[in-house]
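Form 7-S
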Amino acid sequence: MTNTTDWKAALNSKEDFKNFITDYFAKHEELTGNYENTSYYEYYTVRLDSKDGLIITLTTGINTTGNTGVSPIPFKDVEKLSIEQFRQLILNKKFADMHTSLADVFKTVAGVPDAVKG
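Output:
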């Protein structure tokens, strides 16, 4: 796992953050995560594309209960952000918990409920 303080220190500089994110994805092809409860699920992947920047793919759906035999089709959304747009999102969210991981930040930016407690 990436050292928590490294990405937070890198936030102070546009260039440092770009280098950090580029290095992170060079080592970890993509970042994946999910959130699920009895009625709802959400899966996301984040990868870095040299042309489009960060590509966040979010798949959401509803968990069915009972024997309806019909399952709703999941919704898939793809967002593209530049590394600087992502840095600004993080800065504007003001992650207060110093133990928040980079994965937690991606979850929060992707809109996953309860991603960051605080």
